[in-house]
């Protein structure tokens, strides 16, 4: 579309509008005869006449705190539902978002689907950001990709350990959160087979965080409130506030 055509197109499409912004635009562009395509596109975008198409869950993005889905107790699945194309698609989508966001844990409610499904993994890439001292103190261990459906948790060590934690659904923040040191989980795999595992340290923390999601809870419910920190507060100061936090994956 050429510049002049863009101007005519926009005029045709706004002539029915009577607000002052449109009138100003019409006056301006009837006298100027044409408008640059970029200016027209920006002006049109600012009118917000083009609405984004709402997406249906399961999403390719992670929903944020305030979304009602994050506060629901997720629905348990019957064994014969696990193999259905719908649930297998949901698990596939969960894995897709998990990789895109480079998560260590993600639950189905976080992509808008309130079912009792969690996914967790701790691999070599995740390990890179931790010092040797942290790996020891946090009891960090490598863990394979693990899908657990309908998880039931039993606490094996009631001692709680406090470490900093963040969540893709509370983007841009972290806080100190107490968690049980050792737990046992029972549930079903993505093939519908029974799974039972014992988790300690960091792995136990990741799994407890995801189980909380399945029960409509977030770490902000149990965090030490005064430790809540914006993950880029210092960059905000350095750049005079000109910082944007992306809510999609990079
Ligand atoms: Zn989370």
Automatic annotation (TrEMBL):
UniProt keyword annotations, A-Z: Hydrolase, Metal-binding, Protein biosynthesis
A molecular-function term among this protein's GO annotations: metal ion binding
PANTHER family the record matches: PEPTIDE DEFORMYLASE, PEPTIDE DEFORMYLASE, MITOCHONDRIAL
Protein family (similarity comment): Belongs to the polypeptide deformylase family.
Reactions catalysed: N-terminal N-formyl-L-methionyl-[peptide] + H2O = N-terminal L-methionyl-[peptide] + formate
Keyword Hydrolase: yes
InterPro entries: Peptide_deformylase (IPR023635), Peptide_deformylase_sf (IPR036821)
Protein name stated in the entry: Peptide deformylase
Domain of life: Eukaryota
GO biological process: translation
A GO-annotated cellular component: mitochondrion
EC code(s) of this entry: 3.5.1.88
Organism encoding this protein: Psylliodes chrysocephalus
Annotated function: Removes the formyl group from the N-terminal Met of newly synthesized proteins.
């Amino acid at each position: 579309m050429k510049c002049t055509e863009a101007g005519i197109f926009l005029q045709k499409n706004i002539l029915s509008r009577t607000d002052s912004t449109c009138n100003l635009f019409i006056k301006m562009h009837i006298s100027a005869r044409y408008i640059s395509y970029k200016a027209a596109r920006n002006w049109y975008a600012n009118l917000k006449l083009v609405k984004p198409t709402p997406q249906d869950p399961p999403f390719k993005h992670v929903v944020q705190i305030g979304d009602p889905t994050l506060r629901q107790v997720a629905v348990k699945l019957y064994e014969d539902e696990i193999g259905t194309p719908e649930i297998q698609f949901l698990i596939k989508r969960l894995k897709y978002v998990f990789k895109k966001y480079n998560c260590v844990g993600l639950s189905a409610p976080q992509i808008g689907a309130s079912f009792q499904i969690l996914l967790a993994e701790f691999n070599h890439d995740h390990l890179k950001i931790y010092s040797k001292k942290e790996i020891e103190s946090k009891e960090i261990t490598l863990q394979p990709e693990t899908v657990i459906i309908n998880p039931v948790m039993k606490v094996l060590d009631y001692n709680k350990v406090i470490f900093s934690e963040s969540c893709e659904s509370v983007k841009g923040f972290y806080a100190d959160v107490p968690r049980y040191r050792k737990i046992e989980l029972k549930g079903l795999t993505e093939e519908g087979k029974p799974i039972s595992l014992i988790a300690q340290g960091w792995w136990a923390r990741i799994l407890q965080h995801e189980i909380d999601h399945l029960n409509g809870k977030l770490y902000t419910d149990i965090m030490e409130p005064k430790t809540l920190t914006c993950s880029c507060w210092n960059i905000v100061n350095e750049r005079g506030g000109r910082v944007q936090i992306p809510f999609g994956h990079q």
